[in-house]
Amino acid sequence: MKRSFVILALSSLVTACTVTVNKGDSPGAATEASLMQADRDFAVATHARGIDGWMSFYAPDAIRIRYRGNMIKGFDEIRKFDLPNISDTTTTLNWEPTDAHVYRGGNIGSTTGKYSVINRIGADAGKEGGHGRYVTMWRRDGDRWLVIMDTGYPDPGVAR
């Protein structure tokens, strides 16, 4: 009888001490896969809606870091800065994330990836006009990711 009680007590103690591990697969969990998908959705929205699609992923307090330049701060200033390039109908900006990281707490993340600029008109239509890498920082806002910092830089040897 005593032995059964000890085994039952130990069994209860082990069960009470079991740790639940969050594998990030619960609904709404901030995972690297969800962040990679947000970056891909950002590209799709930009291709479909131009500057409006681009800006739909920016937080109001976001910053853009210009290549070899200073920061552009805030939604309206970023829109003004990016409007000429995103609205350019002679080229298309394509990008694909290659890596993602979600920081402890699950509300901040980053993606890095490759971009290319494809010519749309003239003798060079369909040809790559430039390529490089980018870094984007993201913040969770409810159930979606918003861009809080974005920058890009051409690969070495690429004219810019």
Give a short synopsis of this structure.
The protein has 160 residues and is of the alpha+beta class. The chain contains four helices and six strands.
What does this structure look like?
- It is a single chain.
- This protein has 160 residues and is an alpha+beta fold.
- The chain has one domain: Nuclear Transport Factor 2, Chain: A.
- It is built from four helices and six strands.
- It has a six-stranded mixed beta sheet, covered by helices on one side.
- Strand 4 and strand 5 (128-141) form a beta hairpin.
- The chain starts with a helix and ends in a 6-residue tail after the last strand.
- Mean pLDDT is 84; it is low at 3-28.
- Within the CATH hierarchy, at the fold level, what is the topology? Nuclear Transport Factor 2, Chain: A
Helix/strand order, N-terminal first? HHHEEHEEEE
Instruction: Briefly note the structural class of the backbone.
Output: alpha+beta
Q: How many discrete structural domains? A: 1
Mean pLDDT: 84
CATH class: Alpha Beta
Side by side, the strands of the main sheet go 2-1-6-5-4-3
Describe how the helices and strands are arranged.
Elements: H1 2-16, H2 32-49, H3 51-55, E1 58-65, E2 71-73, H4 75-86, E3 91-102, E4 108-119, E5 128-141, E6 144-154
Parallel strand pairs: 1-6
Antiparallel strand pairs: 1-2, 3-4, 4-5, 5-6
